[in-house]
Write a structure and sequence with these properties.
Layout lengths: L1 H10 L9 H33 L3 H47 L1 H14 L4 H14 L1 H10 L9 H25 L5 H24 L3 H25 L1
Helix pairs in contact: 2-3, 2-7, 2-8, 2-9, 3-6, 3-7, 4-5, 4-6, 5-6, 7-8, 8-9
């Protein structure tokens, strides 16, 4: 038992691991692609609301720029808080399991055994697997089995925050640039086209990274973009 306890205490200070490919793709999808999509829709909503109420180009630009910055910083702070909470929760779970390994090692082995039995392995074989894994990497094994946590793979809250900040800002720039730079004759259709192309791209990337239906994701994003334009333009006209 002393051997297992020693190993578990060593495992509490794992080497800083690089993110796995799945973790990188999930982070890119959540912070990058979806952040860009939010940036596009929030900015275009403000642009069309204000543009429906005034034709002053400078007023429209300032309103859109203000919303772009507010959206970017709001998403960054939200992502920072979310990832920090997740990281703290995972670390608390790891600390709890470290204590259980020291005080109740046999029950932890049984948990791993039951995990493999549930996967269709015979009890005897499951016990042998559990004992072998728990003898080599007890803490890493138990947190993976109980919580699906990869020991040492904690996402950096600051990385998540900056990813959301820049992705939301980058997404919002497309409609803002279109409505600001395009000639008056094609300003509105050009901005609508820019929005549709942008949200179609984010839908495509999101589906690819999430292994979803690309066609459905693209169509859904375009429809949401058009509905956003209609609602906010209508609100601007109403008031």
């Amino acid at each position: 038992m002393q051997v297992e306890t020693h190993k578990s205490s060593q495992a509490t200070k794992p080497a800083k691991n690089k993110m796995t490919m799945d973790e990188k793709l999930n982070a890119l999808r959540a912070g990058g692609v979806l952040g860009s999509n939010d940036g596009i829709l929030t900015v275009v909503g403000v642009l069309f609301s204000v543009a429906a109420a005034t034709t002053n180009s400078f007023t429209i630009f300032i309103a859109g720029l203000s919303d772009l910055l507010a959206c970017a910083f709001s998403m960054a702070s939200g992502e920072y808080a979310s990832v920090s909470t997740q990281k703290d929760t995972e670390k608390a779970a790891v600390a709890k399991e470290e204590q259980l390994l020291q005080t109740n090692f046999e029950d932890e082995v049984k948990v791993v055994q039951q995990y493999y039995i549930a996967k269709g392995v015979t009890p005897a074989t499951a016990l042998a697997i559990a004992q072998d894994l728990m003898a080599k990497k007890p803490l890493e094994t138990i947190v993976d089995v109980k919580y699906d946590i990869k020991l040492g793979h904690y996402m950096n809250p600051w990385d998540a925050a900056f990813a959301s900040l820049f992705s939301a800002a980058a997404g919002g720039i497309f409609p803002l640039a279109a409505i600001t730079l395009l000639p008056d004759a094609i300003k509105w259709p050009g901005t609508i086209l820019a929005v549709c192309v942008s949200v179609a791209l984010t839908g495509y990337l999101s589906a690819k990274l999430g292994k979803g239906n690309v066609k459905v994701a693209v169509i859904r994003n375009i429809l949401v973009g058009i509905i956003t334009i209609i609602i906010h333009y209508g609100i601007g006209k109403l008031f």
